[in-house]
Protein: PD-(D/E)XK nuclease family protein
Amino acid sequence: MAAPSGPSLSPSRAADFKTCPLLFRFRTVDKLPETPSADQVRGTLIHAVLERLFDLPAADRTPEAAAALVAPEWEKLVAQEPELASLFAAEPPVAAGPSGSPAARSAGTQTDPATDGGVSDPATDGELSNPAAGGRLSDPAAGGQSGPAAGGQLSDPAAGGQSGPAAGGQQSPAAGGGLMRDPAAVAAEADATGQAALVDVPSGAAEAARIAAFLSGARDLLAGYFAVEDPRRLEPAERESLISTMIGDELLLRGYIDRLDVSPAGDLRVVDYKTGGAPRQAFEGRALFQLKFYALVLWRTRGVVPRALRLLYLKDAEALDYSPEAGELERFERTLLALSQAIERAKRDRDFRPKPSRLCGWCSHQSLCPEFGGTPPPYPETAAITDLTSGAEPDRVATLLRDDPLG
Structure:
């Protein structure tokens, strides 16, 4: 695709600005480097394995076949991004929480919202309603309508709802500066690297043991996929597909869909894989924002409103479905146009303000953030205007490694 001449948005670009305008600037304008976490890399690996799984004949898409794909797909990722191998050279740091106590929790209890929007919540009963359209998120795996927050409502960004920190309170930056790690971020990294199982491993063998534990953890997550879907009964129409459309003759929308299923009757189902646990209310709304983005693009390019938007949470083996409506997508389109206009104003005025939230605990740019006593770098004077407006995504691997907080 040729570089767009005007503004464009992807789900990750929109997510960055909605989460924190300063984060958007760091990533899109300053183009600051970020080192992916092992938890993010594991999500990328799982996506690659599931894509390759559907290259096999239907009868061969078994749990054993998927597990056998993990090691070769990991080798391919390292060949494309050699620096990934260095993630396991040293033990992940154990950060201190806001109170000064150790932040590490038992591995596997929570995951990284920057990777999958998934902060697991034991409260998975109750109905999640969308105030914009009266729709519901249903859980086919459980045979009923269930949501990640008991009795909670889904905050719809398209309807102007707030999608702030997860229930339980917001972690504010320490007064007077100081970096912060969310305990869930530390736990997710320990889980991805298998730290809980490597306590007694000799230091000389630690790196190989961490990689082995990482690959084993990826295979375990694949079991969650097979618990909610039987790939032998599916023939996806598209996988890892780049879709795009123009709205309002002024804004280009584009993004990657994990999987698109098309029924014999022409009904569309958008499927997005999440390697984290089913999230709490706030993060569910953010994940749904991403899928509405895809639904809007498909509707405008194919004239069909997707019948279902499906989130597959592999850690918890849950499938959550949502059915959008045309009127809802029209409102969402206006929301994206307004968001794009806000981004363009911020660029023009060079005004990207931080927006503190719990997600600060996952951010790798805290040292440059005023909320933590830092100073952003000088605004790049030589940046080409197309660099600031195109919103062009890097290749698919890099896009997944820097997946957005929407999931």
